[in-house]
Design brief:
The chain is an alpha/beta fold. Among the domains are: 39 residues; 154 residues, Nucleotidyltransferase, domain 5; 111 residues. The protein is 50% helix and 8% strand. The chain has 16 helices and seven strands. The longest helix is centred in the C-terminal third of the chain and has 32 residues. It is extended.
């Protein structure tokens, strides 16, 4: 029977109430009948009647709870002893909005005569009764007529025209700010170009999706130098996080699966969208990188690291944990044991001092030494228990447990690297977070229609996601990069340059 809280229709609610009333009447009548019989019964008959009475009472409570009680998902915990009058507070108070501009509006009386005596009311200087509300100012598109004044010399040898605004393309009709608005709507807010066309139409602008794509294409050329610079910045880090996810290329004939390859550091992220998930694509992404690569168990990274002394591969404990979570139903005991041990590792990580890669050398050495000391003292014994647990298992090789144990054991060196190098984290979550926007975009605008579309998408995702990592407003950052590139072709603008502005 459905929960009353989930029923919205009034007639359905009324019908449910009638059914409950009839059922309650029937059960109460039965209870009265049994109560009368109990007084006349002796021995075993009395005991059986009492059991039936208790059962019916429990059945009644269950029916009432099913109709009027909270569902299991919404059931609240016990009230706090400090709750005062016993009523739980619901909802939330107003949130501070420090970034919103404040506009003051004054309201006055239409009549200024006293409602009691009829005399004249006088204003109480500086006294107001204040309240707040949040409203919306609708976005508007406007057509700006640019009139550039002309000047000539009395010698009639020259005519000089005042310079105009920065143009995305010579003679173009749309401003850089407009192009950035389209880009942020697509790659930040995941709105397909066709959907943007409909929204703009409601706001008074008649435009085609091809026109919007043209703006993105030109804008991508201006952003290319900064895009490449961000890639170089990521690959200059001592530690990077790598991951990949699929991308759809719609070439007009049939969808084709391409792949977004992402590599991230603490202050930037870089993407390439390529036509395969093979070793060559991974090699193109890492481009001779010689530091530490944190990745999942995908074999391409292992193969690439074995080809030469290029980078050191370390593995992600979150992925190992997932393998055991996936077999929880079939192997509950083993799954619970391993998930618990990995949870203990993360408990130790919560106690580590944070390693700030931008700090001075002395401070970094002190922090890294403390991180290694804590891990040696607390994490190493847990890792030993995990290793012993693996040795004790005798699963079938192709079973879920066998696969999970093999995944962990076959990559043991990569999983335990964090004990020797205090810079290494436990997981690859930074790379997975960096791919979240791409996955959301893929679900909404499905992918790209051309190879150039994949290149443009990689550029915008790189700039927007890198801005997020350092706490810079992404749209503002891309507009700044665009204007600098128009004024100084080839200019590079990194996100942290906006932190002081």
């Amino acid at each position: 029977m459905p929960q009353i809280d989930h029923i919205q229709d009034i007639d359905t609610l009324r019908q449910a109430a009638r059914l409950l009333e009839r059922e309650n009447d029937r059960l109460h009548a039965k209870i009265r009948q049994l109560t009368e019989e109990i007084s006349r019964l002796r021995g075993e008959e009395a005991g059986n009647a009492q059991k039936e009475l208790a059962f019916l009472q429990e059945l009644l409570r269950q029916r009432e709870s099913a109709l009027f009680g909270d569902s299991s998902e919404r059931r609240r915990g016990p009230r706090s002893p400090s709750s005062g009058n016993g009523r739980e507070k619901t909802g939330h108070g107003p949130r501070a909005q420090p970034q919103l501009p404040v506009v003051e509006e004054f309201y006055d009386l239409e009549r200024r005569d006293c409602p009691v005596c009829g005399g004249d009311l006088r204003e109480m200087s500086g006294q107001t009764e204040d309240s707040e509300e949040i409203t919306v100012v609708e976005r508007r598109f406007i057509l700006v007529k640019q009139r550039r004044r002309k000047y000539r010399c009395q010698c009639n040898a020259s005519v000089v025209t005042a310079p105009g605004p920065d143009k995305l393309t010579p003679g173009g009709r749309y401003t850089p700010a407009f192009a950035v608005e389209v880009a942020s709507s697509k790659y930040l807010d995941h709105l397909p170009l066709e959907r943007q066309v409909k929204i703009m139409g409601r706001e008074g602008l008649m435009v085609e999706s091809q026109t919007l794509w043209d703006q993105l294409n030109v804008l991508g050329h201006h952003l290319q130098p900064t895009y490449e610079a961000l890639g170089e910045r990521v690959l200059s880090s001592a530690l990077v996080f790598a991951d990949e996810t699929w991308w759809r290329l719609m070439d007009g004939k049939a969808p084709k699966r391409w792949w977004v390859w992402g590599v991230a550091s603490d202050d930037a992220v870089f993407y390439r969208i390529q036509d395969s998930r093979g070793k060559a694509s991974a090699k193109t992404l890492l481009n001779g990188y010689e530091g530490i690569v944190m990745a999942d168990g995908y074999g391409v990274y292992s193969a690439l690291s074995r080809d030469g002394p290029s980078f050191r591969l370390v593995n992600c404990w979150t992925h190992a944990r997932r393998k055991f979570v996936e077999i929880e139903e079939s192997f509950p005991k083993e799954s619970a044991e391993m998930v618990g041990l990995i949870g203990e590792l993360y408990g130790v990580e919560d106690r580590l001092p944070r390693w700030d890669r931008s700090a001075g050398d002395d401070e970094q050495r002190t922090v890294l030494a403390e991180r290694k000391r804590i891990r040696d003292e607390h994490s190493r014994p847990i890792v030993d228990r995990i290793r012993n647990w693996i040795y004790e298992q005798r699963p079938l090789p192709r079973s879920g447990l066998g696969t999970a144990v093999s995944y962990l054991g076959d990559r043991w060196k990569g999983f335990t690297a964090f004990l020797e190098d205090p810079r290494v984290p436990l997981d690859n979550n930074a790379a997975e977070r960096a791919l979240r926007g791409i996955v959301l975009g893929r679900k909404n605008h499905y992918g790209s229609r051309s190879k150039r579309g994949t290149e443009v998408a990689a550029i915008f995702y790189t700039l927007f996601e890198s801005a997020k990592l350092v706490g810079v407003e992404p749209k503002r950052y891309v507009l700044k990069v665009t204007l600098e590139a128009i004024r100084r072709p080839g200019a590079v603008t990194l996100p942290e340059s906006l932190l002081s502005q």
